[in-house]
Write a structure and sequence with these properties.
This protein is mainly beta. It has two helices and 14 strands, in the order ββββββββββββαββα. Strands 1, 2, 3, 6, 7, 8, 9, 10, 11, 12, 13 and 14 form a twelve-stranded antiparallel β-sheet that branches. A hairpin with a 5-residue loop joins strand 13 and strand 14. The N and C termini lie far apart (63 Å). The model is unreliable at 1-16 (pLDDT under 50).
Length: 228
């Protein structure tokens, strides 16, 4: 008697859990009356299992005798291993990207450009005043006005539906209100028309195959290019 069984091919499935977000930094400068200009910098960020990757942008000013151009070019990408405290910087976001720089970092390391996975932004607050909630695209945002030593004022927006996210703009505020800060706008109290803001835009709670491919290649580079 011959026995038959149903055979199946088992495929290793990569865990695609992770997060991708975009950090939008805006500088609004009001010169006179209604005349204003805005410089907007957008930086993409990815995170999965203690590995973070951030796009690094810079502000570039180019002036001639007749024109003035401001741009925010991408300088590269920073790969961070939060467990091992290792940083690898690449020229572009691809699995064959040129490795530009390798270094260890500490809690006091100052990163130039990009999202700082090592620590969140710090905005000291003396006074925090709740404002009326607002709803955008069916998402409820709680809003707060803050002041600091009569020299700085601003507004926080938080989301209470994103408590489990890795990304928080200002952790100190998140601890106070038990929600996730997604927008902070500040301005000097004596010149309230000069505004500087950060906005955190959530893109996805998983990493697509194209991003997974980059993560896999850069993880291998940790073994290939070890730091003594």
């Amino acid at each position: 008697m011959m026995a038959f069984c149903e055979c199946k091919t088992v495929k290793n499935i990569v865990n695609q859990y992770g997060e991708s977000v975009e950090l939008i930094t805006t500088f609004d400068i009001f010169r006179s009356g209604s005349d204003s200009s805005a410089l907007i910098m957008r930086q993409k960020i990815w995170y999965q299992d203690s590995i973070g990757v951030t796009e690094i942008c810079a502000i570039r000013f180019e002036r001639t005798d007749t024109t003035s151009i401001t741009s925010t070019p991408t300088l590269g990408y920073r790969y961070i291993n939060l467990r091992k405290k290792l940083a690898y910087e690449y020229a572009n976001f691809s699995d064959t990207a040129t490795l530009k720089k390798i270094y260890r970092y500490s809690d006091t390391t100052t990163f130039v450009g990009g999202w700082n996975f090592n620590k969140s932004m710090n905005y000291p607050v003396d006074e925090l005043q709740p404002l009326v909630d607002t709803v955008i695209n069916d998402i409820i945002y709680k809003r707060y006005k803050f002041k600091y030593r009569k020299i700085q004022e601003g507004i926080y927006w938080v989301r209470c539906d994103k408590k489990d996210t890795f990304f928080k703009l200002v952790k100190s505020l998140a601890d106070k209100v038990s929600c996730t800060p997604v927008f902070v706008g500040t301005f000097p109290a004596n010149t309230p028309k000069n505004i500087y803001s950060h906005e955190l835009k959530f893109i996805s709670n998983y990493l697509p195959d194209s991003v997974q491919k980059v993560f896999a290649a850069w993880k291998k580079n940790e073994i290939k290019y070890q730091i003594n």
